[in-house]
Amino acid sequence: MSRILKRFFSSTVTIKPTPSKTHHHQPIPSSNFPSGYLLTGIHAGVKKKPGLLDVGLILSTSSRPTSAAACFTKNAFKAAPVLVSEQVIASNAGRARALVVNSGCANAVTGKQGMEDAWAMVKETDKLLPPSSSGTPDGHETLVMSTGVIGQTLPISKILSAIRSQREGQASLGNDFAAWERAAKAFMTTDTFPKLRSRSFTIHGREYKLAGMDKGAGMIHPDMGPPSIGPMAAGAKGPLHATLLGCIMTDAAVSPASLQRALTYAVERSFNSISVDGDMSTNDTIIVLANGAAADAATPEIDDAKDKEAYEIFKKELTEFAIDLAKLVVRDGEGATKFVTVTVKGAPTYQDAHLIASRVSTSALVKTALYGEDANWGRILAATGSIPLSAPLHPDKVSVTFVPSDGTASLPVLVNGEPEKVDEVRAKEILSLEDFEVVVDLGGGDKAEVARYYTCDFSYEYVRINGDYRS
């Protein structure tokens, strides 16, 4: 790092400490996790520091067929694991029983070798699966994800050896909290805590469970959609959207096509609605497995064409759960000191509201103002007005409000295009909170569309983490 930069960061600026985020990870009772899964995390040696978990395994052991759905990055430089997972889902018509993930190396932009390595991980993990009793097609049944540095090849022999250890007397696979936590830790790169959640829901009097994990702290602005090849791609409708990786497991039985439709809907409102720094990764992937382990043999798979009520309940539960997981990524944003919800109301369409919320959430001027605890609503308006909409925007109907998370009074700063006299002390109180909301109302009325984005501020710590300062 140059002497000028050293002087700037050490003397000129008072840097606020980044708050600890570890309280977002708490033990979960083992009984809260879905049945029919085995998981673990292993140290293979992808990460140089001894003992750090860098390979995760998730296996479905249900006697029923396991459905698999995924949303993948739309980045033109799709990483090898993305391409391979798309092929597995396509060839098996939406069925898969396992997931293997490594951290420490993204296996992205690695050419032919990268593809061979991703397939090698699939084949080795396939060997851990019990024989299929019914319904699962022959062929590869493992999906693969990678995260870490782009442009470097995997230490594949170390990874394969780690996977192989799980069938050679060194197995640490389990379904208790410790096993789920090990798998979640294996996802981590610059994350400061493992991101793991669970919840229960009921359909037609039967209880099912969801559990999932994700990772991400930098290079976060996902735009993911269903697989681009195979039968699952044909069912996609409408606009589709460090690396974001996530997986969600349920013991409900859901048909592959309906699982994909529910996930696509959920991802648009969760993982496609978060931003840390506005940069889309080459590896972004969200996978859902539904193994039916909590359904009896006579219970049919949930399918939107056969039981709309059951499907809508499942879609709602999956969406809310995905939002909870997605928020954890933003809370762990590199250098972030604020968690900010950007709500856009009164828009002509959901897509209009989503585009504006995205633009506000990715504006460097807005994000630096949030860090400085400055209610500079002019920057928010400038970002709002930069997006072409499907119908004309009427500036005289637009309002902007800051909403605190502590239940105290909100602070309108613009009402129907007219600026309010802002109480700067009150504005500072709201923006000094760790959580708050920015509401942009376009004035389209209560029946108009609403979209939410979850974002964070830009701090000096973010620059330090992502800059290449050589002392």
From TrEMBL:
GO BP: any one term: ornithine biosynthetic process
Protein's cellular compartments: Mitochondrion matrix
Residue(s) at site: Involved in the stabilization of negative charge on the oxyanion by the formation of the oxyanion hole: 147-148
Short name of any one Pfam family annotated for the protein: ArgJ
InterPro entries the UniProt entry points to: Arg_biosynth_ArgJ, ArgJ-like_dom_sf, ArgJ_beta_C
Listed pathway(s): Amino-acid biosynthesis; L-arginine biosynthesis; L-ornithine and N-acetyl-L-glutamate from L-glutamate and N(2)-acetyl-L-ornithine (cyclic): step 1/1; Amino-acid biosynthesis; L-arginine biosynthesis; N(2)-acetyl-L-ornithine from L-glutamate: step 1/4
Positions annotated as active site in the UniProt record: 243 (nucleophile)
Entry GO MF terms: L-glutamate N-acetyltransferase activity; L-glutamate N-acetyltransferase activity, acting on acetyl-L-ornithine as donor
Catalytic activity annotation: L-glutamate + acetyl-CoA = N-acetyl-L-glutamate + CoA + H(+); N(2)-acetyl-L-ornithine + L-glutamate = N-acetyl-L-glutamate + L-ornithine
Binding site for substrate: 189, 215, 243, 334, 466, 471
The record's account of how the chain is modified after translation: The alpha and beta chains are autoproteolytically processed from a single precursor protein within the mitochondrion.
Domain of life: Eukaryota
UniProt GO cellular component terms: mitochondrial matrix
Site (Cleavage): 242-243
Keywords: Acyltransferase, Amino-acid biosynthesis, Arginine biosynthesis, Autocatalytic cleavage, Mitochondrion, Multifunctional enzyme, Transferase
The protein's Enzyme Commission number: 2.3.1.35, 2.3.1.1
Stated family: Belongs to the ArgJ family.
Role of this protein: Catalyzes two activities which are involved in the cyclic version of arginine biosynthesis: the synthesis of acetylglutamate from glutamate and acetyl-CoA, and of ornithine by transacetylation between acetylornithine and glutamate.
Subunit and interaction comment: Heterodimer of an alpha and a beta chain.
Protein name: Arginine biosynthesis bifunctional protein ArgJ, mitochondrial
Source organism: Tetrapyrgos nigripes
